[in-house]
């Protein structure tokens, strides 16, 4: 059974001015879609065709001979998670809703601003392509980074992520990754998605 392209939960211009319609058109419509097409071609008529995306990732990650399958499967998963980590500009959440997640943020980071600062620091420190993640690890919130297609799920519980591959921001910001991160961190983070993931632990 072939995997289908995840449908964006908002229009391509919904993240402007922080992420342009043009960037979403390329990032989602070309990069994400290409990972999907590649994976479907790679697993066609193999036992992996019947597995879930998560199982494909976990079952191919450690094997160099399966690297192409892992890369494309993990990039599909990471991108699907990233789109949900973002909220349209008009729905901007100025603060985290009161509740268990916010209490954990204050406990583990001291403030929402400290969490954002740490996420930005880790995202900037990722050399080359990769991802920055807010995760739950043994009951505590933390920030981790992964390179290329690597994903933290299966090791810790991802709650939110930011894509720091250049194709996520280059059309809008060129090499100014910090400016892209400021736009996302201060205007586009979907805290309700993090809460939903925490509730599903």
Description:
The protein is mainly α and 201 residues long. It has 2 domains: 21-85, Helix Hairpins, CATH 1.10.287; 94-199, minor pseudopilin epsh fold (3-Layer(bab) Sandwich). It is built from 8 helices and 3 strands. It has helices spanning 21-43, 53-60, 67-85, 100-109, 112-125, 170-173, 177-187, 191-199; strands spanning 130-137, 140-147, 157-163. The protein has a 3-stranded antiparallel beta sheet. The chain is globular and about 50 Å long. It starts with 20 loop residues before the first helix and ends with a helix.
Distance between the termini: 28 Å
Which fold does the CATH topology of the largest domain refer to? minor pseudopilin epsh fold
Q: For the report, how would you describe the main beta sheet?
A: 3 strands, antiparallel
Total individual domains? 2
CATH H-level superfamily of the largest domain: Iron/manganese superoxide dismutase, C-terminal domain
Helix/strand structural class: mainly alpha
The percent range for helix content is 40-55%
Mean pLDDT: 97
Which stretches are low in confidence, meaning pLDDT under 50 for 5 or more residues running? none
Question: Can you give keywords for this protein?
Answer:
3 strands, 8 helices, Helix Hairpins, three-stranded antiparallel beta sheet, 201 residues, mainly alpha, minor pseudopilin epsh fold
């Amino acid at each position: 059974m072939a995997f289908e392209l995840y449908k964006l939960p908002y229009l391509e211009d919904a993240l402007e001015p922080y992420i342009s319609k043009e960037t979403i058109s390329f990032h989602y419509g070309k990069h994400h879609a290409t990972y999907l097409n590649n994976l479907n071609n790679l697993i066609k008529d193999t036992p992996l065709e019947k597995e879930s995306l998560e199982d494909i990732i976990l079952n191919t990650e450690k094997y160099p001979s399966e690297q192409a399958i892992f890369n494309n499967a993990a990039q599909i998963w990471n991108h699907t998670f990233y789109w949900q980590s973002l909220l349209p500009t008009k729905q901007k959440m100025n603060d985290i809703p009161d509740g268990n997640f916010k209490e954990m943020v204050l406990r583990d980071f001291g403030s929402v601003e400290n969490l954002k600062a740490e996420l930005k620091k880790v995202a900037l420190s990722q050399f080359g392509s990769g991802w920055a993640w807010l995760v739950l690890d043994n009951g505590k919130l933390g920030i981790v980074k992964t390179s290329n297609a690597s994903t933290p799920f299966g090791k810790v519980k991802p709650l939110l992520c930011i894509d720091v591959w250049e194709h996520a921001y280059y059309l809008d910001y060129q090499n100014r990754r910090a400016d892209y991160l400021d736009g996302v961190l201060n205007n586009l983070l979907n805290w309700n998605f993090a809460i939903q993931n925490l509730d599903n632990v």
